[in-house]
Amino acid sequence: MKNTLFTLLVFVIFFAFNTQLFAQDQDLEWDPDLTNDWTPVEDSVSTGAYGEPPSDAIVLFDGTDLSEWSSAPGYFPDIPGVPDYLDAIRQDHGEAPWKVEDGAMHVVPGTGNIMTKQEFGDVHLHIEWRTPEEIDGDGQGRGNSGVFLMGLYEIQVLDSWQNPTYSNGQAGAIYKQKAPMVNASKAPGEWQTYDIFFERPHFDEDGSVIKPAYVTVLHNGVLIHHREKLQGPTVYIGLSEYVPHPRKMPIGLQDHGDYVSFRNIWVREL
In the chain, which residue ranges form alpha helices assigned H by DSSP? Predict the structure, then answer.
């Protein structure tokens, strides 16, 4: 009899304890106030139509002048030249030599690359570009240019409308590293957009990589890279590897000898 009473008592205590826990779970499940987060968010950002700069954006080109840009030294580097390039890229190389006309900036072939006067790390970069309407050449020789994050990591610009080339060199490619998931190119002469979300690499004091660079890219509103890990800076020959560099560096645009145009360029620092 004593054993029966003891067992019954244990059962009652166990039932009461679990009932209390269940009630607490029910409170958590049914009371929305318990999961509300009232941490203040920064001031509101006003937005317009797609592609228009949000109110917190830094406008790098509004169609009027190249005051936010300067001339850049030579072509963007191959890995062996990176240390010298890092020293050179921050020097003043004079005014950007490209032409501004009809609200766009136009590559003047042979004048060289240009880069932003401001330096950036993690960014959302919006940029619109156009290749010549008249088709001249094929493969890499047709509407070729590039957008260089931190002057080192290239998203390819190319006329890839019915224009076969190596896939990791077509429009939207992380050049020589990763082909886009799809070819979202428009016909020659039409304006196209890139929205590039770039996460810079992080280096330890000894130069080792703590965190590699990542990039997400929308081409004409279509996702073509989803947080893709970069192997290192862009190289034309061989495999890439990281070289330690500053936390912020200029954004570059490439003169590859073709008449490519750009407009509506802005960034949001992330």
Answer: 2-30, 82-89
Q: Are residues 141 and 263 in the same domain?
A: yes
- CA dihedral over 256, 260, 261, 265, signed as positive or negative: negative
Number of domains in the chain: 2
% of the chain at pLDDT higher than 90:
67
Which residue segment(s) compose the domain that 19 sits in?
Answer: 2-35
Q: Which of 26, 77, 43, 105 is nearest to 237 (CA)?
A: 77
Assess if residue 216 is contained within a domain. yes
Report d(CA 111, CA 257) in Å as an integer: 9
Query: For position 77, what pLDDT does the model report?
Result: 52
In a domain, 40, yes or no: no
State pLDDT tens for residues 66-85: 999 999 866 455 544 555 66
Q: Alpha-carbon distance 127 to 129, whole Å?
A: 7
